[in-house]
Amino acid sequence: MTEATEGGVLLSEDLGPVRRLTLNRPGSLNALNAELMDALEAAFDAAAEDDEVRIVVLRGAGRAFCAGYDLNQDAEEGTKDAAEWHRELDRDTKRLLRILELPKPVIASVHSYCLAGGTDLMLACDLAVASDDAVFGYVDIRFGSGVVSMFLPWVVGVRKAKELLFTGEDRIPADEALRIGLVNRVVPRDELGAATMALAQEIAKNEPFVVQTTKRALNRAWDVAGFRAALAANTELDVMIETANLPARDEFRRITSEQGLKAAIAWRDAKFRGEG
After folding, report:
1. Which of 9, 72, 109, 254 is deepest in the core (most CB within 10 A)?
2. Are 152 and 138 within 8 A, CB to CB?
3. What percent of the chain shows pLDDT beyond 90?
4. Under 8 Å CB-to-CB from 138, ≥6 apart: which residues?
């Protein structure tokens, strides 16, 4: 589904040495569809090649940072076979790895909803500054879906990742996200933009070659520990989840198609909100 947005689904502006990218699907809470993912990939490639860019900031337009992958698109596409799912999941994970591999540091500037694939996107960034109204989490398990890119245990640890993923909690507040290491800083909502830019400018003052090489060294620590092998294994296992076509997933898609995404989300969350 294409959303008409002024300036396109991804906006780009240069503020001195900082390139600020803005997810621009506000009517869908910046849900990640194919068009937006393509635009992100191209934008990060362009930032990598531009010597004037030292830092990239990623934020969301409108009421939220990112509500996750576009579930309307998922409902429209319907069921897929294992080969199709593997291609899609592998492609999306590689796109997020492209952010991690970008030579320049990337800072996520997060407000309001940062859920599921939105949390994946935030975790692919090197740092995250969140507003005090931000909420995080993975609701995938509640409607028979899996995590696309398993960054979470590498950031917060396996024990906490299990709790968050097994429960499908999607309302982790900003202060808790800070406590468990999901984000780096939390600031009042009206200070988010300035605080993110201040951090970016602080980093940009340093020698670019040293910053970029240090990022490579830090990423290498994960690689030596098996990070990429773990992500590849998650892709294989997630294919099993997505092709199981579990009743909850089928019902969620049916309601989305017939009544709209809002009704499907209400059905999904009813028993977890004490409503069913």
Report:
1. 109
2. yes
3. 81
4. 115, 116, 119, 147, 152, 164, 165, 168, 169, 170
Alpha carbons 64 and 113: distance in angstroms, whole number: 5
Main-chain phi, psi angles of 36, to 5 degrees: -70, -40
Strand partners, 110: 130
* DSSP structure class, residue 185: E
Give per-residue burial for 111-120: e unless 16+ CB within 10 Å, then b: bbbbbbbbbb
Q: Residue 10 and residue 61: Cα distance in Å, rounded?
A: 9
Characterize the bridge pairing of strands 18-23 and 10-15: antiparallel
Query: CA 105 from chain center: how many Å?
Result: 16
Q: What is the identity of the amino acid at 161?
A: A
Q: How many residues does the chain have?
A: 276
Inform me whether the pLDDT recorded for 128 exceeds 90.
Answer: yes
Dist. CA 224–CA 135, nearest whole Å: 32
pTM surpassing 0.90? yes
Residue with tokens 């030579």, as numbered in its chain: 103
- Amino acid at position 257, single letter: S
Supply the DSSP symbol for 69: B
Q: Where are the beta strands (DSSP E) in 77-165?
A: 106-110, 113-115, 127-131, 135-137
Are 255 and 144 in contact, with CB atoms under 8 Å apart? no
- Which residues on adjacent β-strands are paired with residue 57? 20, 107
Average pLDDT over residues 118-138: 98
Q: Is the pLDDT of residue 4 over 80?
A: no
With bands split at pLDDT 50, 70 and 90, how would you rate the model's confidence at 2?
very low
* Displacement of CA 220 from its chain's centroid (Å): 21
Q: pLDDT-based confidence at 5, cuts 50/70/90?
A: low
The conformational region for residue 112 under phi > 0 = left, psi -120 to 50 = alpha, else beta, is left
What's the CA gap between 121 and 150, in Å, rounded? 11
